[in-house]
Write a structure and sequence with these properties.
By secondary structure, this protein is mainly alpha-helical. It is built from 11 helices and 3 strands; from the N terminus they run ααααααβββααααα.
Length: 310
């Protein structure tokens, strides 16, 4: 096996080893919480949905890329390429938008009771299912180009002018215009929620700064005043997730823009591999942040670990 494929396989393997168990652990923790309390808070439902989307990203793309890199299994024929790229892009986009929804909801959660923003939070609580359905439809439609333009590598013996090399597959565009339009739509799909979640995180940080004295007062008071501390921990966790997203997806989109500026299909898939790696890195690391910062998840997983040791 060439050293380049070995390194590539090891990188995807590391994402798989971290991301798949991590996201499954988060999902199981919330399902256990649902079983014990018969309900989940809206913020918990958003995080659960986010973990499911991240699991799809890591399992569908990273796991299959790992198996193909080590020549254990290869599903990347025409139908396989279309399916894998479509599901990956849909789940990736869904993960992005759910991170924005989580940051926006947390921003609404710290609004003073009785304010207009607090009323909007109640409205979001009521129609959260509608929000999820809308995001699924939006991300599915935005990723439909993968079905139209993706094909297996064996059908592309010659380099085309407006294609993207993704190692085991090609994304073939019929013209320069179609490549630029599709590429710009993908960038907009990422940049819009990125800007919105950055704004929401900025509002959260300003709120935490202004109310730092009150938070210190709550911490030094009796244990009955722990609600503010819980809100602060949740807000900090959301800011950490958004920061992780902005850094990793910022690199991803920078590489994507570079790919769009290349006139001919590159003979190497290095840039595409780096894009998939950085975008999947968020899906692999976000459950680590959730487990470390979410006491509900942490406590449920801790209880299960102690039971297994007994």
């Amino acid at each position: 096996m060439p050293s380049e494929e070995l390194i590539r396989g090891m990188l995807y393997l590391s994402l798989t080893v971290v991301g798949v168990p991590g996201n499954i652990a988060v999902i199981l923790a919330f399902l256990l919480l649902l079983h014990q309390e018969n309900q989940l808070l809206p913020a918990d439902v958003i995080v659960l949905h986010l973990a499911c989307a991240n699991l799809l990203v890591v399992a569908v793309r990273c796991l299959l890329e790992t198996l193909a890199s080590f020549q254990l299994a290869n599903v990347f024929d025409d139908h396989g390429c279309k399916s894998v790229i479509f599901v990956h892009r849909t789940a990736r986009s869904l993960s992005i938008w759910l991170t924005f929804v989580l940051s926006a909801y947390q921003c609404l959660s710290i609004a003073p009771p009785g304010s207009r923003w607090a009323s909007m939070r109640l409205l979001v609580n009521k129609y959260l299912g509608v929000v999820f359905i809308f995001l699924w439809l939006l991300t599915t439609c935005m990723s439909s180009g993968a079905i139209l333009f993706s094909s297996g590598r064996q059908n592309n013996s010659t380099m085309i002018s407006y294609g993207i090399n993704v190692q085991f597959c090609y994304v073939n565009f019929p013209s320069k215009l179609s490549k630029e339009v599709y590429g710009s739509a993908q960038v907009s799909r990422d940049v819009v929620p990125m800007a919105l979640m950055a704004l929401a995180s900025l509002i959260i940080l300003v709120f935490l700064y202004k109310h730092s004295g009150q938070v210190k007062g709550l911490r030094s008071s009796s244990s009955g005043g722990g609600g503010g501390g819980a809100e602060q921990r949740a807000a900090k966790a959301v800011v950490a997730l958004v920061t992780l997203y902005v850094v990793l997806y910022g690199v991803d989109n920078g590489l994507w823009v570079y790919t769009l500026t290349v006139r001919k299909t590159m003979t190497t898939s290095l840039i595409s591999d780096l894009r998939v790696f950085f975008s999947s890195l968020y899906a692999a690391l976000s459950p680590v942040v959730i487990i470390a910062s979410n006491r509900k998840v942490n406590s449920r997983l801790g209880v299960q670990c102690r039971r297994k040791k007994k």
